[in-house]
Specification:
single chain; 340 residues; disordered N terminus; D-Maltodextrin-Binding Protein, domain 2; alpha/beta; 13 helices; 2 domains
Length: 340
């Protein structure tokens, strides 16, 4: 019986594996590279895929989940673009902020997002900015005059980009502390009072910290301030979107750029150079996996949503977002990195 393997992977190790592999459908192993640790929704979703994707790939190969955390997922993305084997046996779970990072920090991001080929998405989720109820602020207006410390994993992460964009667009005074290792550690810092808030996907909030927001009446631990996405989360109809809060056309475009994260969500993509034949096989395998009753049942048991989107649809949205005007990009960059 083939096994599902999870672990850490050095650059040289992955290259060594790639040297002996041929393709996704005629060898014994497929590797999913994840730019985050195992504890968050990236790790959980990749493991969910590894349990079921193998059943829909010709030859039923073992599916291996490997983690390369760092820089909000950008370390793994840079590696996947430049060094990952292009034989179809290696796929990336891209960070949801992959488009945003390329537009805002092109010199740091050693990849071209539109040259990845999306296989599909398991689910997308809005980012929700929230602070502790005892932080001293109850609304966005109060945050314009009172500083609140929030936690972040790094500058490529929504935990940094969302509060920093809100500072630029709305005049809030979030002080962002970076360097926390993963969503579990950032939320722990909030719980322990090291920080007073953070941005997180609504899926992660409701999966891992549900009691902070729901079924707590007027005594909830956290207060929701705004959400970032193209449309509102179904159970957050009264929480404003950042695009609605922005005033000017360029500011709305900057907020919309962040909203691409909700579309990309948790899915898989091939690096450039993989053959059209391999892409077709794996897109079919991905879609058959995420639409199967077995997969959705397993996802439900793990409290992970399934709102799949086909790779071609994601590709179209990504390519469109990258056509954002230079003026709007410059405005967004000024909001995110005001001192540069």
């Amino acid at each position: 019986m083939k096994k599902i393997i999870i672990g850490s992977l050095a650059f040289a190790g992955m290259l060594a594996i790639g040297a002996t592999s041929s393709s996704a459908q005629d060898q014994d192993r497929v590797t999913i590279l994840v730019g985050y640790g195992a504890g968050g929704t990236y790790g959980q979703t990749s493991m969910l895929l590894s349990r079921h994707l193998k059943d829909n790939i010709p030859g039923n190969p073992t599916v291996v989940v490997q983690h390369m955390p760092g820089a909000g997922g950008s370390k793994a993305t840079n590696y996947a673009y430049n060094a990952m084997p292009k034989n179809g046996a290696f796929v990336l779970m891209p960070p949801e902020m992959i488009v945003v990072s390329q537009l805002l920090r092109p010199k740091k991001m050693k990849y071209k997002t539109n040259q990845f080929t999306w296989l599909g998405r398991v689910f997308g989720a809005n980012q929700v900015m929230a602070v502790r109820a005892d932080s001293g602020v109850k609304s966005l207006n109060e945050l314009k005059s009172k500083q609140v410390i929030v936690a972040s994993t790094g500058k490529g992460s929504p935990t940094f980009l969302v509060p920093q964009m809100m500072n630029g667009l709305l005049g809030t005074k979030f002080k962002i502390v970076t360097g926390y290792k993963g969503s579990k550690r950032t939320s722990m810092s909030v719980e322990q009072g090291e920080t007073a808030g953070m941005s997180n996907s609504w899926v992660s909030w409701t999966k891992n910290r549900r009691d902070w927001f729901m079924d707590c009446g007027s005594k909830c631990f956290m207060i929701k301030l705004a959400q970032v996405g193209n449309t509102k989360e179904p159970d957050l109809p009264n929480l404003p979107l950042l695009t609605d809060l922005a005033k000017t056309a360029d500011d709305k475009a900057a907020a919309a750029m962040l909203s691409t994260a909700a579309v990309i969500g948790r899915g898989l993509a091939y690096p450039p150079g993989v053959s059209a034949k391999q892409i077709k096989v794996m897109r079919t395998a991905f879609w058959n996996t995420v639409t199967s009753s077995k997969f959705t049942k397993d996802a439900k048991s793990k409290r992970l949503p399934v709102t799949p989107l086909k790779g071609a649809a994601i590709q179209k949205i990504v390519n469109g977002a990258l056509k954002m005007s230079p003026e709007a990009v410059a405005k967004a960059r000024a909001h995110i990195f005001p001192n540069k």
